[in-house]
């Protein structure tokens, strides 16, 4: 709900993440945890002969779960600048929440607010993905990908080198399910890294032309990873 305060419309009881979708988020975390426990206590215990490699995989799994919480709990970049009805303003306002519309600011119908650099509303993470939490999403898909790829490599190595013929079906089944999971994950890893290198949001990525200049890519990555400290947005958020 919106609340009139001075000449500003501000959001009352703003909560991080979408409260009604929170069970979905917890379900995703629990499901991923179960998958990782299976990987660690069944697959790694059985097939990983290099103890340090298991530690590396577990580290990436922990980073992946940590990123999930960061995505959900980081304020996505909600557009807080609003204007009252009696004040003259000739810019664009959002019809639904009366936030000032700037470029790349879109209204999320599930959370009922406008978000800067809006990507999409993510149901599994129960939050909008926008300017300030997109980098944690990049971390999430990357860490999950690395943890699963390393495990896949161990299993493929076992398939071709091991002499345990009895467990062949078990290894093959696990490889197939890992490959299927990664097939779903790969497009996310690819598009998130590519969009960050070009400073595109999801809505722009089909229209814009790719610029491969290393300096341009470096500049965009630098901006992408320091966005969290965007002082104006942070000040807006802290004000309420
Ligand atoms: Zn809006
Ligand atoms: Zn949303």
Automatic annotation (TrEMBL):
Chief localization: membrane
Catalytic activity annotation: L-cysteinyl-[protein] + hexadecanoyl-CoA = S-hexadecanoyl-L-cysteinyl-[protein] + CoA
UniProt subcellular location: Endomembrane system
Transmembrane annotation, as ranges: 20-39, 136-157, 169-193
Membrane topology: Multi-pass membrane protein
One GO biological process term: protein targeting to membrane
Domain Palmitoyltransferase DHHC: 90-206
Any GO CC annotation of this UniProt entry: Golgi apparatus
EC number of this enzyme: 2.3.1.225
GO molecular function terms listed in the Swiss-Prot or TrEMBL record: protein-cysteine S-palmitoyltransferase activity
Family (UniProt): Belongs to the DHHC palmitoyltransferase family.
PANTHER family hit by this protein: PALMITOYLTRANSFERASE APP, ZINC FINGER DHHC DOMAIN CONTAINING PROTEIN
UniProt note: domains: The DHHC domain is required for palmitoyltransferase activity.
Protein name (Swiss-Prot/TrEMBL): Palmitoyltransferase
């Amino acid at each position: 709900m919106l609340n009139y305060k001075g000449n500003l419309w501000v959001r009352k009881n703003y909560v991080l993440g979408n409260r009604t979708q929170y069970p979905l988020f917890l379900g995703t975390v629990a499901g991923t945890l179960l998958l990782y426990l299976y990987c660690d206590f069944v697959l790694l215990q059985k097939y990983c002969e290099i103890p340090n490699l298991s530690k590396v995989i577990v580290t990436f799994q922990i980073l992946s779960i940590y990123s999930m919480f960061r995505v959900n709990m980081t304020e996505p970049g909600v557009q807080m600048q609003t204007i009252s009805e009696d004040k003259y303003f000739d810019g664009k306002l959002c019809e639904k929440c009366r936030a000032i519309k700037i470029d790349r600011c879109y209204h999320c119908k599930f959370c009922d607010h406008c978000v800067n650099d809006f990507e999409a509303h993510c149901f599994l993470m129960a939050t909008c993905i926008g300017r300030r939490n997109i980098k944690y999403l990049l971390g999430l898909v990357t860490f999950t990908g690395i943890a699963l790829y390393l495990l896949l490599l161990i299993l493929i190595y076992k398939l071709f080198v091991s002499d345990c013929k009895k467990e062949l079906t078990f290894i093959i089944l696990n490889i197939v399910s890992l490959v299927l999971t990664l097939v779903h994950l790969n497009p996310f890893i690819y598009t998130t890294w590519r969009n960050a290198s070009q400073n595109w949001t999801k809505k722009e990525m089909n229209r814009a032309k790719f610029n491969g200049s290393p300096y341009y890519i470096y500049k965009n990555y630098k901006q992408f990873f320091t966005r969290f400290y965007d002082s104006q947005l942070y000040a807006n958020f802290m004000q309420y």
